[in-house]
Amino acid sequence: MTGRCRRRLVVGVDHTPEAQVAVRWVVEEAGYRNCPVRVISAYEAVSAPAPFDTRVPAGPPASLRERFDDAVAYARDRLGRDRVDSALVPGKPATVLLAEARSAELVVVGSRPRSTLGAIAVGSVGDAVAAHAACSVVVARTVGDEPVQPRIVVGVDDSDGAAAAVSLAFEAADSRNLALDVAHCWQPFGYASRVRWSEDVIAVARRRRKAWMADKIAGAAEKHPAVHAATFLLEGRAGAKLVAWSRHAALLVVGSRGHGGVAGLLLGSVSQHVVHHAHCTVMVAREAGGDGRSGA
Fold first, then answer.
1. The domain that contains 179 carries what CATH number?
2. CB 66 within 8 A of CB 12
3. Which of 4, 37, 25, 12 lies closest to 99 in space, CA to CA?
4. Are 100 and 41 in contact (CB under 8 A)?
5. Planar angle of CA 109, 31, 1, nearest 5 degrees
6. Sign of CA dihedral 193, 197, 203, 206
7. Counting C-beta atoms within 10 Å of the first and last residue's C-beta, which end of the chain has fewer, N or C?
8. Is residue 156 located within the same domain as residue 290?
C-alpha cells in the first residue's frame, strides 16, 4: 500500500507469552497495511493499604509492566516511534479492548496453545473481544510445524459477513504474495440418505454452488488480479472442515455470524468453533467501523 491508512491496528498485551505472538503479528500486519499501531494493556486496579487507614489505588503488576514495555519497544524498533502509541490503563481488559475497537481497523489478541484434546483456550478476554468487537479481530497463535506451502484460507457462505471475509482474505493474500483457498462447506443430503439423490441431481447442485462461489469472489478477484485463488466445495460440517483446512494455512479468515453489544449473542457456531480449534491464526472479519453486528 502506498498511502498510510487512517485507522489503527490495536493489540492487547497481557503478562502471558502469547502476547508476544500477537505483537509480532500486528507489527507485520502494520507493515503490509502501512497502518499505525496502538499497544494496549489493562489491569484491574486494587486498592492497597496505606497509613492512617487510607487506601491508594495499586499500579499495574510488575510482570504486566515488563511485557507492556517490551511490546512497545519491539513495535517502535520496527515501525518507528511516530507509528506506535501505547496506553497502560486501569480497567477490565475486555472492556478496554472493546472500547478501542470502536475506532480501530483491527484488534489483535493472543491465543493460548492448543491442548492435547485439540481445543484452544483462547481465554475470556479473547473470547469476549472476538464475539463483540466492532471491527475485525485476529486471534494470533504460534504454528507448531510451518506449512510447506502456506496459504490464506477463507470460508464463505451466503451471509452478509462473508463479503468482508472475502475482501480481507484477498488483501492478506495479495500483501503476503500467498495463494488463496476459498472454501465453501455444504451438506447436500442433509439428513436424507444419499441413495435418494441421483448423481445427475448432485452434479447440477455442485455446478450451481461452484458458479455461486465464483460470483461471490469476482469483485475481490478483479481488485487483486495478482492473487491466485482456487475455490473448493467441501462436503461436511463447516467448522470441522475449515479446521482441517487450517493445517496448511498461514491465516484462516471467517465472517462473524453473531451479534455484538454487551447483551449480544456470541459468535456463530462455525466462527466460534474455528476460533477455538484452528491450527493457525484466525481472523474474524467485520466491516471496520461497524457496531459488531455483522450479520448473519
1. 3.40.50.12370
2. no
3. 12
4. no
5. 125
6. negative
7. N
8. yes
**Amino acid sitting at position 249:** A
- CB within 8 Å of 123: residues ≥ 6 apart: 109, 111, 112
Same domain, 28 and 128: yes
Give the CA distances from residue 63 to residues 12, 23, 68, 221, 281, in Å, rounded to whole numbers and listed in that order. Answer: 15, 16, 9, 46, 25
Q: Do 151 and 87 share a domain, yes or no?
A: no
Position 266 scores a pLDDT of 40
279 and 155 in a common domain? yes
- Domain extent, residue 286, equals 145-296
Answer yes or no: do 151 and 135 share one domain. no
Q: Say whether 75 sits in a helix, a strand or coil.
A: helix
Q: What's the number of domains the chain is made of?
A: 2
Residue 51, number of CB atoms within 10 A of its CB: 6
Mean pLDDT by 10 residues, the chain (296 residues): 72 91 96 95 73 63 93 98 96 94 95 54 77 93 70 89 93 96 83 61 86 95 97 91 92 74 50 89 80 41
Strand 54-57 to 47-50 pairing: antiparallel
For residue 177, what is its C-alpha cell?
Answer: 504474495
Q: How far apart are CA 188 and CA 210, in angstroms?
A: 13
Grid look-up 455484538 returns 260
Question: Given CA atoms 231, 267, 15, 72 in this order, what sign does their dihedral have?
Answer: positive
The pTM (predicted TM-score) of the whole model is: 0.85
104 forms bridges with which residues in the sheet? Answer: 8
